[in-house]
Amino acid sequence: MSQMLERLQQEKIVAIFRFIEDQYADQAAQALLDGGISLMEITMNTDGATTMISRWREKFGDKAGIGAGTVLDLDMAKEAVAAGSQFLIAPNLDESVVDYGLKTGVPVWPGVMTPTEIVRAWKAGAELVKVFPMASLGLKYLTEIRAPLNNIPMLASGGVDLDNIAEYFKAGACGVGMGSKLVNMDWVRSGRYDLLTERARQFVEAASVK
């Protein structure tokens, strides 16, 4: 088990930064750290993603775990790792990316939906799979696939909110990925980083409920 997976199992939440402008990025990330969320991914379809990843690695050090999201193929994976990504997350399964992660020691958490894809990713060497899109699949789906596949750690991405986050963990997720519900871009652009910090605290508290 990688250090990042251990961290995820302890902290339970990965914050997803998608399309955030560089001028707001550092303060937004600090706001989440202040609220208790330290695992963060910047999606590779965000302008300047690799620049932000490199800067955050230097700026936050061990306080944060910084990864790349929307890593669709091997070229993107190489760019992200060169920038300092500590983990790679994708909406899809590309076995060449998983293999690259194994060779470089950078955890790859590929996106899957069906039981066949989940097992395929696991056999390819993925230590964890991202079940996506959970907002459409629903919690019942997660509960059902966890029954026969309970030995494979699953990160649930999509549909998570304050009123249901605990249900995701009861259904068997070891962690959740959260974007706009956590990184509210209206708050970011208006400088209300205090609201980001408070929202982060609320989600951390909700995720810790047994």
From TrEMBL:
Q: What is the name of this protein? A: 2-dehydro-3-deoxyphosphogluconate aldolase/(4S)-4-hydroxy-2-oxoglutarate aldolase
Q: Which organism is it from?
A: Paenibacillus taihuensis
What CDD domains does the entry give? KDPG_aldolase (cd00452)
Which protein family is named in the record?
Belongs to the KHG/KDPG aldolase family.
Pfam families found in the cross-reference section:
Aldolase
Q: Which pathway?
A: Carbohydrate acid metabolism
What lineage, starting at the top, does this entry show?
Bacteria, Bacillati, Bacillota, Bacilli, Bacillales
Record-linked InterPro entries: Aldlse_KDPG_KHG, Aldolase_TIM
Oligomeric and partner information: Homotrimer.
Kindly list the GO molecular function terms attached to this UniProt entry. Answer: lyase activity
Keyword list (alphabetical) reads: Carbohydrate metabolism, Lyase
